[in-house]
Each structure stands twice: as structure tokens, then as C-alpha cells.
Design goal:
Helices cover about 40% and strands about 20% of the residues. With about 575 residues, the protein is of the alpha/beta class.
């Protein structure tokens, strides 16, 4: 391939609304690409007159994207009222860097920079944007320019300069851009994706768009923030928008969407997380408009499960859930989809799965289903063995982070992973709990529940949740100190009913009672009169729990005969459990 000779201009493609233009008009536009535009002022006077004459002649806005060497990289043709910038190369974008190009364009009606111009500069990280105005004789009149500011440097993330005569512009456009990049580098700010916090974690803006009451939206956003923290994200800002109806294309209006994007830019965030499930087209539209990665609540939960899955069965179940979620979203393999499918930090199937077609994905899901069938067979055999041994099964269920694993560890002396995070436990864990007089039960810990649990996870974790079907008693553990404990208890009851487990005897336990203020304990007891109160951490109330468990699995209540009713031990008398 031959290279152009020194001094030979490289052709610059004309993009945009070129339909209906005459060949002579296209030639005039192409000639703009042969010019070199100075940094100081942004153009020569002849170049300003040429731009205005061409725009006047075709009756459409004309723009140039100019690099820091003064070379046009793209010639744009818009409508009478605006100009559309197509997808740009992101190769130069990085920490504390701008795009490396500035926009110079002509406005036909004499107006200055529009909100759309400033939005383009924000979203695309342009060095600057400038608008030439002209009179009815196609002569340039004024120029108005704007450039970005470092985060926190002003009330707005950009500085809009006042209009001035087109022949008296003295700003050095390149100097402004390099000064901004130097300032960003000194302050350690992140202007371009990926936006990260000083801790190195990715920064995200949480968005709730719903017709629900604002208090309900805020409570749901608090839970989304906890999920984001578990996933390794730092929440830069949360946005709540109440709407009468959801915009089918962009979820919310363009004005509010622009506010969200500005908030993301100022916070240095590279990710938008929507509270709810988005359709594939909505994610694609939001990604294309904002130039940010967009995920929904379902993908966030799937990403958390992908991080925490440790066993072979857990990894298989998570992978199947992710593939089923991604399958309808594999519409096209463009840059927007590569940002979408990467998940947080690129975990999960990600971009490698974009390279396979639907047939191969279906084949992979089929193989995973076969492996999970074998897993269910082995677990069924284990359950049958426990049944032959005559041991009753008590399963701990409840909302995620309610303290089920801590309670299992306290009762059995085990060392199951227990963290103050959502979904710290994914795989079922069973331990023997031995009482005096050689009485034993099997105590099982299961994956935590959450409101609006993704349907992909419900199906994928069928092998895990089948452990509940063999239970003689369900101990529903709730976090009594959580402000939404009422809703969480109701959510667990609804999920159990959906799983057709509502007929299994159930015991409600209010855990973390030591963290409940004294003035709230009375109302909680009134709200849940049949619940037991305890603290798995301090061991207070454990004897009451063991007494209640033995009451419910003794002859006449449970399904097995275990002999005489044993004496209930104190907490300190409970021996360590054995796997």
C-alpha cells in the first residue's frame, strides 16, 4: 500500500446529511478537508468566510472535527437546526485525557452554542466546541466557544465564553486542552472512562426511574447501592426520577438523561446502573447516547454471583444464568454491545461471548443443563442418605445478608464464610447439629433471597434451592435492624410461595436483635408476634431457637420419629458441628 507523498492532502470523508447535495457542493465540502486550521483563534478569516458560504449555500449546518495539528479528521453536514456527530474512535481516550479533536461548526440562525453542542462536548470529551454565526449575506459575524473544566472547578463542568466578533478571537484552542489535561493529571481526576475512585474501584451513577412513591424508590436505591458495593463499585451519585410512564426508548426524557450524563462526567463515573430490568434495545439506546456503559439491576446481581461462585456447581449455575440473560441481547456486535456485555471490570461471558452465535450459546446452555442434572442426582442421593438415617432437615432461608451463615456457624461451630455483604454465600452448606441424648438434625444454609430475583437465577439455581424441598422445617432469618425488615420478610414469603414451598412449616427469626434500638423493639414484636428474637453474633436467644426447632421436629409435628423429647441445652452447651 503506497503512502501519500509529502505535502499531499489526505481525503477526509464527508459525513452526515448529504442526501440531495449537488456534486459541486460535495466538492466544496471535501475541499475543507485540505485546509490546515490554526490553533490560535481556531481558523483564518478566509476559512471562516468559506465555511459560512458553504453552509449558506446548502442551507444546512456544516462542521469540522479538527485535531491538534490543525488537520480536519471529519467533515460533518447537519440539518438547519443541528448537527449529529457519529461514533468516534476511542483509541486516544484514557485517564485524564480528552478526545484530541475540537468541533468548529456554523449556525444558520444567528444563535450561539446550544445545549446539544455542550452535551456533545461533554459526552464525547471534545477539546472544545465553537459556533460561527453569519448574517443574511453569508458573512461570518460572531464566534462563541466553550471548553471543559476540571471536576469541581465551577458550578458547571464547562466554561462557555461570551460571543465575540469572529475576527477578534485570540484563544489558543490547543493550549486550553493541554492545560486541562495537565490539571486533571495533577489532581488525579478521571475524566474519561473507565472512571475510577482513588481506591481503584470503578465509579457508577445509580438511576431509579419508576412511578412508585419516592420513598419506595429511595429504599430500593439503597439496596442497589449495597449491591454495587458488593460488586466492587463506588457510588458517585444516585438519581431518582418519578414518571407517569416509562419512556420505551430511553426510560426517561432527554433532559433528565442529559442531567444524569453531566453528573456522571463531573463525578468521573464510567457506568450507569439502572434500578430495574432494561430491554436490550433500551440498553443499546442509552449506551449510544451517553457513551457510557449501561447495566441494569439484573446484570449487577449476575455479576455479583459470578464473583462469588467458588464451587464447580456454583460457577456452572452462574454461567448458565449469564448466558440466558445475554442471549436475547446478542443482536449485533458493535462497540456499544462490547461495552454492555463486559459487565463490571469485564467479568463473566463478556466480549468473548459476543464472538459466538446463538447456536453455540444454546449448545453451551445444553451442556451446562446436563451437568446440573448430574449434580441434582448426586444431591438427591445425599438427601436420600440423610432420610434413611432418620435425620430431620432444617433449612435456613431469608433475605440476603440477614445473618444465616453466621447463625449456622454459631450453632454448629463451623467456619462457613460469613461476611457483612450481599450474597456472600451461594452454594448450600449442610452441617450436623447434635443435641443431648444423641439427638441430631441436619442444618442447611442456602443462597439468600432478594426482591425481584432475576428469573435467570431462579432457574439456574434450581439445584441449589431443591435442598429446601427436602426440609422438614424452614427457619426464616430476617435482619431485625434493617429499616426495610417488613418488606424483606414479605419478599421471602412471596418467593417461597412462588417456589411452591409455602406448605413447609416455617419459623420466623429476627436476627441482629442486639442492633435494634430499644424504642423500636416493641413495635417489631407487635408486627411479628410469633417471631423469635436473637443475635447470632452475641449468642443471645439461641436456646429459645433450639427449643423451638426441637418442638417442631418432634413426633406429631415433623415427618420422622426421633424418640423422646430431649432436654434443650444452653448456648454454651452446644457442641461443634461436624460436616
Amino acid at each position: 500500500m503506497s503512502t501519500p507523498a509529502r505535502g499531499t492532502a489526505i481525503a477526509v470523508k464527508v459525513e452526515g446529511n448529504t442526501l440531495g447535495l449537488k456534486p459541486s457542493q460535495l466538492k466544496a465540502l471535501e475541499r475543507l478537508g485540505t485546509r490546515r486550521y490554526p490553533s490560535v483563534g481556531g481558523y483564518t478569516l478566509d476559512q471562516a468566510r468559506e465555511l459560512c458560504a458553504i453552509a449558506f449555500g446548502i442551507g444546512r449546518q456544516v462542521g469540522l472535527l479538527i485535531d491538534r495539528k490543525g488537520r480536519p479528521t471529519m467533515i460533518l453536514v447537519g440539518s438547519q437546526k443541528g448537527i449529529l456527530i457519529p461514533e468516534l474512535d476511542r483509541a486516544r481516550l484514557g485517564s485524564a485525557r480528552l478526545r484530541g479533536v475540537r468541533l468548529l461548526h456554523v449556525h444558520l440562525a444567528g444563535e450561539g452554542l446550544s445545549e446539544e453542542d455542550l452535551t456533545d462536548m461533554l459526552f464525547l470529551r471534545l477539546d472544545s466546541v465553537a459556533a460561527l454565526t453569519m448574517d443574511n449575506l453569508a458573512q461570518p459575524v460572531t464566534l462563541q466557544a466553550a471548553h471543559l473544566l476540571p471536576p469541581g472547578a465551577g458550578d458547571a463542568p464547562y466554561d462557555v465564553l461570551p460571543p465575540r466578533p469572529y475576527d477578534r478571537v485570540e484563544e489558543d484552542m490547543n493550549a486550553l486542552a493541554t492545560a486541562l489535561e495537565d490539571e486533571l493529571a495533577r489532581e488525579g481526576e478521571k475524566l474519561a472512562a473507565p472512571g475510577t475512585s482513588p481506591s481503584g474501584r470503578e465509579k457508577a451513577v445509580l438511576v431509579s426511574v419508576s412511578s412508585a412513591p419516592r420513598t419506595a424508590q429511595e429504599a430500593s436505591l439503597d439496596e442497589l447501592a449495597a449491591l454495587a458495593d458488593t460488586a466492587g463499585l463506588d457510588v458517585a451519585e444516585s438519581v431518582v426520577q418519578r414518571v407517569a410512564s416509562i419512556n420505551p426508548k430511553f426510560i426517561l426524557g432527554k433532559g433528565k438523561l442529559a442531567d444524569i450524563e453531566v453528573a456522571a462526567l463531573r463525578a468521573g463515573a464510567s457506568l450507569l446502573v439502572f434500578d430495574g430490568e432494561l430491554s436490550p434495545s433500551q440498553i443499546r439506546n442509552l449506551t449510544e447516547v451517553t457513551q457510557l456503559r449501561v447495566i441494569d439491576r439484573t446484570q449487577l446481581i449476575l455479576d455479583i454471583f459470578a464473583q462469588h461462585a467458588a464451587t464447580r456447581s456454583g460457577k456452572l449455575q452462574v454461567e448458565m444464568a449469564q448466558l440466558k440473560y445475554l442471549q436475547p441481547r446478542l443482536v449485533r456486535q458493535d462497540r456499544a454491545m462490547s461495552r454492555l456485555m463486559g459487565g463490571i471490570g469485564g467479568r463473566g461471558p463478556g466480549e468473548t461471548k459476543l464472538e459466538v452465535d446463538r447456536r453455540r450459546i444454546r449448545e453451551r446452555i445444553g451442556r451446562i443443563k446436563d451437568e446440573l442434572k448430574e449434580l441434582r442426582k448426586r444431591r438427591a442421593a445425599a438427601r436420600a442418605g440423610r432420610a434413611r438415617a432418620g435425620l430431620p432437615v432444617v433449612s435456613l432461608v431469608g433475605y440476603t445478608n440477614a445473618g444465616k451463615s453466621t447463625l449456622l456457624n454459631t450453632l454448629t461451630g463451623s467456619a462457613v464464610l460469613a461476611e457483612n455483604r450481599l450474597f456472600a454465600t451461594l452454594d448450600p452448606t449442610s452441617r450436623r447439629l447434635r443435641f443431648p441424648s444423641d439427638r441430631e438434625i441436619i442444618l442447611t444454609d442456602t443462597v439468600g433471597f432478594i426482591r425481584e430475583l432475576p428469573k435467570e437465577l431462579k432457574e439456574a439455581f434450581r439445584a441449589t434451592l431443591e435442598e429446601l424441598e427436602a426440609a422438614d422445617l424452614l427457619v426464616a432469618v430476617a435482619d431485625a435492624s434493617h429499616p426495610e425488615v417488613d418488606g424483606q420478610v414479605a419478599a421471602v414469603a412471596d418467593i417461597l410461595q412462588e417456589m411452591e414451598l409455602g406448605d413447609i412449616p416455617r419459623l420466623l427469626v429476627l436476627n441482629k436483635w442486639d442492633a435494634v434500638p430499644e424504642d423500636l423493639r416493641g413495635p417489631l414484636k407487635n408486627a411479628f408476634p410469633d417471631a423469635l428474637t436473637l443475635s447470632a453474633r452475641t449468642r443471645d436467644g439461641l436456646s429459645t431457637l433450639t427449643d423451638a426447632i426441637l418442638d417442631r421436629v418432634r413426633p406429631g409435628f415433623g415427618v420422622r420419629d426421633f424418640g423422646p423429647r430431649p432436654v434443650v441445652p444452653d448456648e454454651t452447651d452446644l457442641p461443634a458441628g461436624t460436616p
